Amino acid sequence: MSDWRVLHGDCVQVLKDLDAGSIDAVVTDPPYPEINRSYGRMTEADWRAMMDALIVEVRRVLKPTGSAVFILQPNQERIGRSRPWLWRFMADYAESWNLVQPVFWWNHATMPTAASASFGLCRDSIKPCVWLGPPDCYRKQEEILWTESEGNAAARATARCERKHYPSGHSKNPAKQNGAALRRGGVTPFNVWPIANASVPESIDGSKHPARTPLALADKWVRYICPPGGTVLDPFNGSGTMGVAAVASGRNYIGIEQHEEWVNVARDRIARVTPAIFGVPA
Q1: How confident is the model at residue 201 (pLDDT cuts 50, 70, 90)?
Q2: Does the pLDDT value for residue 25 go beyond 50?
Q3: At 182, is the pLDDT very low, low, confident or very high (cuts 50, 70, 90)?
Q4: Half-sphere exposure of 224 (CA within 13 A, CB side)
């Protein structure tokens, strides 16, 4: 049975009470600057000051092989002018800590906005998952393998996977590659994860939180970077989706939430979860 807690308070201050080296993974979807929410709006400078203080504590509580994922969304000052806060955050912490790998969540169900429908821009459907930690941080690729394509399976079945040579001098053996995928139980994942997030409440939630993280995305990150039986921390708990994913997959969980109304929602959601769900389909 998983142990879990949802704590009420300011995340930076609450983190100070957690033991150093006690957390296996941090997975969180923080609030973004310059967005109006019912709980307020932060300037870019205020947001960065909060995140800088938070990361000091996150690095302290993480185990030596632990890592942290911050799911962030770029936004615009006005149509045709993007705000720079996200790119500065990524560049600064890639240098002062370590960016393990660029990984992106693609919400392929994103609806058109005025910027795309009337002003010629593309739909904003990609969110960077800023993955920070040591180069040798824990990760278990087997937890997030992709299903082998029908093309690979057909090629193997018809023995058309002979070694191929290219003008560059490079060669590869598709039969060997596809055989490895078969033995692994899937193919290695891409660093862009297509997971739909329609603008409606999750069916298991109904809490109508203004910034919902898809359960499938939470589940993938939890299983990928937290070992079974380990502890996941979300300092911006919200309605508790990360906690649902953690407990459902047999991990322990600590959530921190500043707004009391969401603390109660999260506790209720997580209390109804049993570790019978191991993996939530994308």
Answers
A1: very low
A2: yes
A3: low
A4: 22
Q: What number of other Cβ atoms are within 10 A of residue 13's Cβ?
A: 12
Q: In b/e form, how buried is each residue of 15-26, taking b as 16+ CB within 10 angstroms? A: beebeeeebbbb
- Most distant CA pair in the chain: distance in Å? 63
Q: Which residues of 187-197 are buried (b: 16+ CB within 10 A; e: fewer)?
A: beeeeebebeb
Arch. (CATH architecture) of 4-144+189-271: 3-Layer(aba) Sandwich (3.40)
Q: Report the number of secondary-structure helices (H) and strands (E) in the chain.
A: 9, 12
Burial of 125: CB neighbours in 10 Å, binned 0-12, 13-18, 19+: middle
Nearest by Cα to 71 from 118, 110, 16, 30: 30
Residues 6+ apart with CB under 8 A from 223: 140, 143, 144, 249, 279
Q: Per-residue confidence at 38, pLDDT binned at 50, 70, 90? A: confident
Predicted pLDDT at 28: 98
Domain range list for the chain: 4-144+189-271, 146-188
Query: What pLDDT band is residue 36 in, cutting at 50, 70 and 90?
Result: confident
| Three-state secondary-structure class, residue 240 | coil
The fraction of the chain above a pLDDT of 90, given in percent, is 70
Q: What is the pTM of this model?
A: 0.85
CB 89 within 8 A of CB 132: no
Partner residues linked to 102 by β-bridges: 130
